[in-house]
Amino acid sequence: MRRSKGRAIPRCFICLGEVLLVAILTGCLFAGIQGCAGQGEGMRLEVEPQQVLVGDPVSIRASGLASGQTASLRVSGQDQFGNIWSSEASFRADAAGAIDTSRDAPVEGSYHGVDQAGLFWSMAVDQTGQMVSPFPAIHTLTVSLSVDGQVVESQEVQRIGQVDLVKENLTGPIVGVFIRPKEITEPTPAVIVLGGSEGGYSEAWAAVIASRTRMPTLALAYFGRDGLPSTLESIPLETVEKAIDWLGQQPSVASDRIGVVGASRGGELAMLAASVFPQIRAVVGYTPSGVIWSGIGKSPDAPAWTYRGRAFPYLRTMVSEEQERLFLEAQRNGTPYLDAPSFLYSLEMQRSRIDEATIPVENSKAAFLLIGNPGDGVWPSDMLSQISIDRLRAHDHPRQYQLLSYDQGGHMLIPYPYYPTTMRQFYLPTVDVWEGLGGTAEGAARAAEDSWPRVVEFLKRELEG
């Protein structure tokens, strides 16, 4: 997280706000195969439900096998860049000749242990396109059952990214997309969604949140779009203030019950905004920071956030000689760079200024649900989130606050279960480097599976209750 060196940006880049994610699972049917000892016709694959919202469970079962017979299940699909993602695991049928991924562990394959979501999060990419992203938009997934290398049957499920929503594109006074469930006819709590240092707005993420919570949701851009700053530098907090005011003018929004969901630097912004604007009643921070950091862009000393023309106190991102060497090496070779040690170094070197740069969350009227993971590769989100929790506790904050931490969860930019987590880096064009997320594919999947229903329940409880 530092300023660009002026190098050309490679084509392998992603924008979180535009690729977080809609997958449609479809497939084709095969029958009359050879090599199944005459049992192929009796074998059956069941994939349910036939249509499912992103983040919701999908069950895979097989039946009609011989007792103890080994069969393989495979999930595959092509992403928006033409790359093929796939996973595969072999299972041994039970005494009734059945396999159930919610009950059975594979004997070998792309994941281990009993895990209904395993075939989805363990999908790995075979890069054939010119670009690749850890957030694949896979429009067609094929789930197939094979025995002795022969495909017995394939099933299809449609996976959708929104349910009964109306969208409105906004270009002023705020930039983003307003998403409203069709059935809303009276003022309802609303949610603002803030992406991270990739810029733009997270429309697909906001659509899933609106679909699941049935709340009006605003995917808000604060830089990286026309009419906004081009870099994450000197971003006026008035951007969020204008969004709150705009929402308050909408007939479908209860203006005094606003929630904010933010990821990474967007989580930092969400907590900062909540400390200033009392209309914000709930904050969800995915691997955020309770400490304000410098901006990302042209100047290493520029502030990230301002309000009424004044910058909030912040810590500079400082780099040791060893980290600078590793950073330049990663830039040159296109290999992942783990930035977390630089933030630890920065905290140590500016220890006397930490309190001044800490977000005064105790001033907020909001409840807080933070997700900070040990082993986060981007920054030490567990430590940076704990700073806010400790501050809330010290001031006897009257609203609920909680920190969720997941070993090997890494920097959480994928909030949903049943989604590939195997690519553990993303391209950050502002600094021309692949940023390592840390954690593991399985750890990130476990974190998403546990935290996603908690996030939905938290927003509904704290805003509707």
Q: Would you kindly provide a written description of the structure presented here, covering whatever features stand out?
A:
- With 465 residues, this protein is an alpha/beta fold.
- The longest helix has 24 residues, at 441-464.
- The chain has 2 domains: 22-160, Acyl-CoA thioester hydrolase/BAAT N-terminal domain (Immunoglobulin-like); 162-464, 3-Layer(aba) Sandwich (Rossmann fold).
- Strand 4 and strand 5 form a beta hairpin.
- Helix content is 23%, strand content 26%.
- The chain has helices at residues 16-19, 118-121, 203-213, 238-248, 265-274, 321-333, 340-349, 354-357, 381-394, 441-464, and strands at residues 44-48, 51-53, 59-63, 70-78, 84-92, 99-100, 108-109, 124-126, 141-147, 150-155, 158-160, 165-170, 176-181, 188-194, 217-220, 235-236, 253-263, 280-286, 305-307, 310-311, 367-371, 401-404, 425-428, 433-436.
- It has 10 helices and 24 strands.
- Strands 12-13-15-14-17-18-21-22 form an 8-stranded mixed sheet, sandwiched between helices. Strands 4, 5, 7, 8, 9 and 10 form a 6-stranded antiparallel sheet that branches. A 3-stranded antiparallel sheet has the order 1-3-6, with no helix packed on it.
The end-to-end distance, rounded to whole angstroms, is: 39 Å
What is the total domain count? Answer: 2
How is the CATH topology of the largest domain named?
Answer: Rossmann fold
Tell me the radius of gyration: 23 Å
Strand content: 25-35%
Strand order of the largest sheet: 12-13-15-14-17-18-21-22
Spans of at least 5 consecutive residues whose pLDDT stays below 50 are 1-39
CATH architecture of the largest domain, by name, is 3-Layer(aba) Sandwich
How many extended strands?
A: 24
Structural class by SSE content: alpha/beta
